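Example for reference:
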Amino acid sequence: MKDMRPADIAALDIGVVIAPLGNPLGGDIVMLAETARQEGYNHILRIAEEWSAGINRFERRGESLLGAHDQGRLIAVGGMTVEPSRADWLRMRRFYVSRRYRGRGIGRRLAEHLLEHARSFTPVVTVHAGSDDASRFWQAIGFLPLTGESYTHTLRLT
C-alpha cells in the first residue's frame, strides 16, 4: 500500500470512492466480512485476522489493499500481494463486492485500479477464481484461464 500514488485514488461517477485501506484497518472491514460470510465467503474475514496478527498488511513491494466506499460505507475490497510461487509476479486476492452493489461496474473498476497500480511492479498478475462466476468475471477483464497451478488465471500486463 505504501507504493500507492494519489492518482490511484478515484471518485467514481456513481458516487463510489475507491481508495487505499490503511492502518488501522477499522471496523468497516469486519462488517463487510460479516456480509461476505453470510454469502458463504470467508476470505474477507482473513484480511482482518491476518492484519491483526501482522501476517499480511499489504506492505511489500507492489502490494496494495483498496476499498470501495459508498457514502463512507465499505462496500467492496480487493488486494494485490506478491504471488507466492513467483516473487516477480503479483496476485489479485481477497476480492469481494457486496451483493447489492454487483453489476454496477464497481468490481471492474476496483480491479482496474489494482491492475494499473501493478503495472509499475510486475509483468504478470495471477488470481485464484473460487467459483464459476468469479472465473467469468476475471476472464471478462482479460485474465486467461490456466490449469495445474495454485492460481486459476493470469493476465500479462506488458
